[in-house]
Amino acid sequence: MLLYIIDDNQTNLILFEQIAKLAAPEEKIKTFLDPSKALNDFESEKPDLVIIDYMMPDIDGIEFIKKIKKFSFSKEIPIIMVTAATDKEIRHRALDVGVTDFLTKPIDPLEVKTRLINLLALRRLHLRQKDLNVWLSDEILKATETIVSREEELVMRLAKAAEYRDPETGGHIQRMSHYSRVISEKLGMDKSYNDLIQKAAPMHDIGKLGIPDGILLKPGKLTYEEMEIMKLHSSIGSKILENSNSKLIQMGAEIALSHHEKWDGSGYPSGRKGEEIPISARIVAVADVFDALTSERPYKKAWKIEDAIGLLKENRNTHFDSKCVDVFLESIETILEIKSRFKDTKTEITKISEFDLNF
Ligand code: C2E
Ligand code: SIN
Ligand code: SIN
Ligand code: FE
Ligand code: FE
Prior knowledge:
The chain is α/β, with parallel strands linked by helices. Helix content is 60%, strand content 7%. The protein has 17 helices and 5 strands. The longest helix is centred in the middle third of the chain and has 57 residues.
């Protein structure tokens, strides 16, 4: 630590310095006869304690304190002012500008030493507390980052688990979640929403975990009854994800439940219409269908891009929220870039289940 002693009286200055050396043998001490000299380096040196005489010719103690209080760090350092015992009014003014303690002339060396020891102990404690606070908020930040990234990892692994049972490939999840982000960004949602929807979209079909293989992996068209069972994947997904404290999983549940609702109310499971359908699900509906159409499925060939665009346009106000379709089509270059970036790579298990089906 660094102590500043400022007194225009040489004898007092030396006396204070001697006492300070006894009180704080380990610390650096700087003495100044001229307060303006003390001001020069005050900001860069950031002393830890100041002893200042009140009565000085050019700048008095109170003026000096007013000047140093402009630096925010000096709000936290002990300032001891030396005055005559009778200067009640000066002491009150000094308290107003932020003096911590007083010493009275004539100086009592034992009293000065004890005050210094106490105030330095206070200062040391304060510094340690500050270090601790910095360390603690650093640790909290690190821990929070770890929790968030573990949560994201678990969500991706959950989506991957579902994928192993589903003929869809990892490419679908990557593409539709990136498409969803592009739509969300273009709609002008804020960054945290864009991040969230990209991470939550992969959970949309998690409920397919609850659909029997015979239906899920059926190579041909589903019968009416089979399709009714297939439609349960929305509510199953929402059951898997519901009542979470995590914003990410809450959005996952919302998307899982409502991604097959349609703008005109003809979708499932609730037949909600228009803006009753959460915006996250309206966004994901466009992203999911576009990718389902332009990808091969066990029950269908991949559509040409133009045909998929045609279907989106045709269903602007029936199946889809027209705003979502419009921004999607405005961003078609970005969409196609994402499509070519995340090509389908079939997982081992998918290959095995296909093999079983062919067998
Ligand atoms: P999915 O394959 O991920 O398809 C998601 C959505 O994309 C479908 O929701 C539908 O809105 C759209 N879509 C996909 N392929 C076509 C298509 O060839 N024509 C049209 N017009 N739209 C298409 P949807 O219909 O609610 O189906 C939900 C899920 O049910 C599908 O997810 C798929 O896993 C399954 N599914 C639907 N139809 C069949 C089918 O005929 N056979 C089999 N095996 N599964 C089907
Ligand atoms: C001074 O402190 O500046 C001189 C007068 C005194 O010591 O009382
Ligand atoms: C002095 O510092 O010069 C003496 C008077 C006082 O401190 O009040
Ligand atoms: Fe679905
Ligand atoms: Fe999907």
